[in-house]
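Q: What does the assembly look like in three dimensions?
Context provided by user:
Components: four
Sequences:
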Amino acid sequence: MSDHTLLFALGAFLFSAGLLIVLTKKNAIMILLGIELMLNASNLNLILFNRQNPTTYEGQFFALFVILVAVCEAAVGIAIILKAYHYFHTSVPDQFSDLKERN
Amino acid sequence: MTETIHSAASLWLALSVLTIPLFSALVCFVISEKFAWLSPMVSSLLLFITFICSAFLFFQVGDSHALTYSWPWFSVNENIIRASLLLDKHGLIMVMVVSLVSFLVHLYSIGYMAEDQALIRYFGMLGFFTFAMLGLVMSSNLLILFCFWELVGFSSYRLIGHWYEKQEAAKASTKAFLINRVGDLGFLIGLMILWSWLGNLDITYLNLETIPTFWLTTAGVCIFIGVIGKSAQFPLFHWLPDAMEGPTPVSALIHAATMVAAGVFLLIRIESLFTENTLVIISVTGTITAITGAIGALFQYDIKKILAYSTISQLGFMVMAIGAGAAQGGFLHLLHHAFFKAGLFLGAGAIIHAMHQAYHHQEGNVDVQDIRNLGDLRKKIPITFITFMICSAALAGLPFTSGFVSKELILTQMNEWSGNAFSWKWLVILGAWVVTLLTPVYTFRMVWFIFFAKSKHNVEMVEVPIVMRLSMFVISMSSLALLITFKPFHILTIINVLMSLYPNTSHLITLLSTLILLIALVSAFFMYKNYELKDQNKFLTPNLYLDWLSDYAFKLVLQFAILVHWFDRKVIDKIINGLTYLQVGIAHVTGWSDRYLVDGVVNGMAYSAKGIGSVTRSLANGKIQSYLLWAMAGLLIFILWILY
Amino acid sequence: MRHLLSYLIFTPLLAAVVGLLIPATQKNTFRVFALLISIIQIVIMVLIALHYEHHDGIQLSERLPWISMDLGQWGTMKAEYFVALDGLSFPMVALSVAIISIAVISSWTIEKNQKGYFILMLILNGAIMGSFCALDFLLFYVFFEFLLLPMYFLIGIWGGPRREHASIKFFLYTLLGSILILIVIIALYLSFQDPTSGKVLVHTFNMLHMQNPENIIPGSILSIDSTDLLGPYSYRLWAFLLLFIGFAIKLPAVPLHTWLPDAHVEAPTPISVILAALLLKFGAYGLLRFAYPIFPDGAIYFSWLVGFVGVVSIIYGALNALSSKDLKRLIAYSSVSHMGFVLLGLASITVEGVTGAVYQMFSHGIISAMLFLITGVLYDRTHDRLIANYSGLASKMKVFTGFVLIAFFASLGLPGLAGFIGEVMILFGAFLSQKANGLLPIWMAIVATFGLLLGAGYYLWTIQRMFYGPFSVKIPAAEMNDLNHREYVMLLPLAMAALFFGVLPQTLLNFINPFAQQFVEALFKSASFINP
Amino acid sequence: MNPGQLTLYLFVFTAIISVLVMIFTRTVFYAALALTVCLISMAGIYALLYAEFLAITQLVIYAGGVLVLILFGIMLTNRISGKPLITESHHVIKSAIISAGMFLILLVTYQKTSFDQSQSAPAPGNHINKIGIELMSNYVAPFELGGILLLVCLIGAALMASSFKKNDHV
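A: Here is the predicted structure of the complete assembly.
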């Protein structure tokens, strides 16, 4: 198994793990963490793809912008979670809608 | 020049014959409730005019060649369907019979229905029926004929259900229409075959050489299925006894004289269409019907039911005659039967009416149609008795009545048809003889128990109103062979034409049939002289089996329908919902991001919860992550599908 | 006079904008306003009828550039505002004008939020006219989607107790159909060019160009000589299938019909009327206008399937109607059955079948409108639609029973009423098909005739149960009065029309015949161009 | 096995372990810390793959900025109870199946894709330098757009998080 294959496998593993976290964890912050993990897995892939054509930096740039967007997403996500927490006194999204019914 | 005037005049006459009954129906429907009492008079008068017109038309056209008139009705694929009138000998005689019987029934109904609440509807539908029946008889395009064919069925449906508040009447009317519809489907399929091969449905222009024999036979059989339905042939006759729930004059007009005879008339009209094989089917069906009907009539107790079975038997006899090459005899019998059977029904109606009047003041509920409750009426209502006797004699085929003449003719022609060598045809002939034997027996039984046997109930009775007596008288007179066969009246065209239908009958057959008649009457006399009528023997009612069969079929269809409905609600709906599930899932993913990112939590929650509604909540239990889960599952499947 | 069609389409849309300006407190103004617009439309329709000539081409056409976008190396995208009438759309537009007027009269009793209701009705009105007139596929699609939205709200807000369920279901189903159609529209867009544009590649949505297979761009996804297969079929056949499924949902054909009974049962009466009389026609209209002419090869290849779906719909719908306990559901299923006839006639691709299909679309519009108005009359009195709760209505409501008889018998195909002509021609066409072009087997026509028998069965049984027998209504405090004047005014014109088009079919066939002949001829011509 | 490879394996191992911790821990705080570890080891992997600029960005922005932000978030949502924030799991089995399916699909796809292995050795040199030039020339438009996006996010997040008092109607 070459290093490349190993790293691809790592990317796949990270992505699946992120997906698992997003799907299973009830807390919104955990979901956010899972999303970050998935984004990172894709970054790893992008960099690996870039190695196929090392004279340009397309993959790296792509990864860079992914990081950029991820940062924005994290910031806004946390803001929303805080807001929601303030409103519902919980950070578990399933309970948001349940509370809504009562209003 | 004279020819043109001649045909123009007959065109106008034909059109007025056709439209006056329709006009009568319109008048009845338009007239206000306040003047409802006018409608019987007006429509009877209009029908009388119709009869006069048809008589004029008959004399105008007379024995000359057939006239046709046509107008384009609609066109499709460059084939024009033409609404066309065909005025030929058979048709014109039929027109006369229909308008005469219809007029007499109208007249009779003035008395019979005097106390009815829905006179307008009754006379309106009678007028409409007459229009449809005349249209059926005169039209020469099979599609138009089919239209009128269905329309007479419709008016029959309405008239059977005239007293729709009685459940039996309501059921009987539905049954009659549905069973007729079964036959009509056959007719329609026959028309489809003809259309696909010929592109034309006009009887006078059918070019039968272009159509293969197989399809011609199939088309003939299919159209004959229509006749089976309408003319109450085996196995679709069980609607007719039930149809007796309608008012008696209606039974006389529709279910004895005209509508049920329309099938027989159609067979004569499209005789050229029938191949050898079709004729076999026709004659065998006719024989079975004739015998079954006669047996059925032997064991009934309701006057109208006896007459209904007798009608079935007689119609079967005619159909058998046509199938067995005795088309002329069949047609003649059709005409005679129209009169004597209508006369019998009117007589039965008069008995019922008179009994009703008599029991009106008495306690208790007696079924006045049951022959066990009748008896000894000959002195109480003598005029009814006489007319009823004449018509019964014609039905039984006594000499010097019209029934005798046509029966002889049929038997003679069938004898020629069967040939000398033994074949299946002999069975048909045997059937014909059995029917000629059975008919006098059940006729005698009916007459005996109504007019001669000892009555259980002793009531004062009065003769029915004059209008009823008048129409009964006229109609029974026309059943006397003297009027038809009396030579001195030869000068009249009508007799000329009718005479042309009578070829010489064989003396041997006349002798034989008279002998059989005598045997039948004598044996019936001794059989019924001291006979006590007991409870009805249900097993000898052919209706029972067919009713059972058709009820069973209906229940089967209904159960199947319920099953299908269940399937529809539980399976198809669910599957289709499942198919849209993916769509819903995707919608929820967007809804999820919508809730989190776009709308903001506070306002977004309220909106999307409202918008998505209760159903979707139950569909996907409200958990965002489960939507996501299913969406991912869908995505995985999609990827797998795309990749491999 | 040249812009009659535009007047017809945009009068109600403009009126909707004007209606927004009227304050919502002016309650009864809106219905008078909507009725006024309908009357104006009737006048325009009469003018159109006077200008219409009976031939097989399009007429009263208006063409304006709408979208024209230069996409560089991908050519130019061009969509037009192209409206016109031909023998297919004329009857449909006339029917729409009449039915919408009657629906407005039927809406007279609406109390809840009149402003919203009538403005949505006006939008619906304009969108229906637009989609029947449009000859540009994109324009049709836009109008058609535009039409679903007011429908969704009209069911969802003014409907019965389970209205949300019904409206969501309606919307999702028809949306699914629309997506399938949209996919094909994109593929068509990529594959057709405007022949008038010379050397420049101009992608077009124009129906007249799309009907001609010579305008297919060689090598494109739907090109004739493409041998690419996706699964068992080529892309062209798939495109036809997608269109067929998309329009079959709207038709609706079994097994994609389940939205219809729910939507009908919950919708208010006027909306049921529009839904049954007009919206269902878009399924058949779409097949006749788009699917068949653009993909004649698919039409011929899948004719067996289309015919089979038609026959199954006929029998299946009728059986479901037979076992329905709810009157409105019964009528909804009978619509499935009757639209199955349209499908069968279409599948036969004979002149008889196509003529019959168009005629059936028209007559079903009249008859189903009448049937739903009839259930509305009962529902107004008792708020109950269960058949078992009524008995002997004939003795209390005489005039009403008369109309019921006309509607029921017209629907079960009694000659002399409008339903008969269409069904008979469809059956003739379906039967003829095997001999004429070998597409449909004979048994289909024969099985379809049983639909007529079942139709008679469920209608007569309903009459027997509801109208015959001794009078009793199992709903307390229900006054069973006979028709009032408003109901009379709604039902009478429809009954007259049912009678008129049953007795004098040629008045309508003058429009349909040239279309049907040209349709079948052109279809086989371009089919032979595609598969020489 | 040269030292470079050994380091790589070490980073990979750390990443996997930390992700497993993320999956199995119930405390959100630990999960966040594990993610930090994971991201740092990823940064190491980036560096070994000759993407030094990205590695640094990863360290600074992710491990530094984002994780701190998230930790703040955890603490803020936790301030009332004071107990550690515990998260529950649901749909475990279904999700595990789907994730495993995704993993397998990705693996199989990699396996089937033929990568060109010949050019995998990049030219030595100052990559950061070149990236800077590229960023200011070819990629300037996305770069600027990214800046605007960040600004918008910053303002939006600040607004959203700071308006507690005004909307306080619970």
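Follow-up: The mean pLDDT of chain C is 86.
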